[in-house]
């Protein structure tokens, strides 16, 4: 037993110190690094076709400096834009919370808007019903034709269902009503 313990002590010391066997060699890479790869990208996306609610664009010259911006619609339905620069010192955003002011209307545009609002009010007032009266819309010729076509098809389908029900009842009566109908 003493021999085993002595051998274990001797081998554990030898096995744990292997640093003299491994030579770490610091050398310069044999191939030079590739040249910088500049890039540019951008996209616009939305939750359904024709509706854009976020954008992102970014440009890099390949030297480690990236410039870009992204926009999104916040929960209050306001467009938020963030412009940024990312370099070796970190990410540097510039938040744009205030939208640019809208241009003021020219006198011609202001007059056109006023005319439109007056015409809209006149049409709305002319179409108003007396209090308590119910306005029932009148069908156009196209709506009347579509209703007639729909009713005729409905009648045709109802007749076909009645015919199939009569056939099924005849089959059940023929077999004494013991079989279950097949649908």
Short structural description:
By secondary structure, the chain is an alpha+beta fold. It has 3 helices and 5 strands. The protein is flat, with a radius of gyration of 41 Å.
**What is the distance, rounded to the nearest whole angstrom, between the alpha carbons of the first and last residues?**
88 Å
- Please state the CA-atom Rg, rounded to the nearest Å: 41 Å
Roughly what percent helix? 25-40%
Order of helices and strands: HEEEEEHH
| Major sheet attributes | 5 strands, antiparallel
Biggest sheet: strands side by side, in what order?
1-2-3-4-5
Binned strand content: 15-25%
- The chain-level mean pLDDT equals 81
Structural classification: alpha+beta
Stretches with pLDDT under 50, minimum 5 residues:
none
Number of helices: 3
- Overall 3D form: flat
Q: What is the tally of beta strands?
A: 5
How does this structure look, described?
By secondary structure, this protein is an alpha+beta fold. 38% of the residues lie in helices and 21% in strands. It contains 3 helices and 5 strands. The protein has helices spanning 2-16, 107-127, 141-174; strands at 39-45, 54-60, 66-73, 79-87, 90-96. It has a 5-stranded antiparallel beta sheet with strand order 1-2-3-4-5, with no helix packed on it. β2 (54-60) and β3 form a beta hairpin. The radius of gyration is 41 Å and the shape is flat. The chain starts with a helix and ends in a 9-residue tail after the last helix.
């Amino acid at each position: 037993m003493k021999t085993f313990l002595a051998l274990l002590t001797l081998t554990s010391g030898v096995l744990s110190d292997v640093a003299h066997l491994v030579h770490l060699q610091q050398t310069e890479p044999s191939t030079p690094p590739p040249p910088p790869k500049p890039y540019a990208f951008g996209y616009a996306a939305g939750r359904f076709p024709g509706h854009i609610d976020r954008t992102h664009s970014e440009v890099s010259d390949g030297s480690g400096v990236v410039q870009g911006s992204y926009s999104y619609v916040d929960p209050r339905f306001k467009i938020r834009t963030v412009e940024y620069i990312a370099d070796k010192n970190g990410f540097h955003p510039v938040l744009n919370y205030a939208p640019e002011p809208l241009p003021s209307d020219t006198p011609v545009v202001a007059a056109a808007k006023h005319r439109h609002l007056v015409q809209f009010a006149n049409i709305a007032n002319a179409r108003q019903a007396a209090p308590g009266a119910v306005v029932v819309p009148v069908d156009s010729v196209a709506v009347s034709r579509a209703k007639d076509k729909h009713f005729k098809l409905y009648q045709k389908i109802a007749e076909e269902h009645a015919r199939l029900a009569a056939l099924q009842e005849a089959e059940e009566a023929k077999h004494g009503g013991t079989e279950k109908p097949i649908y």
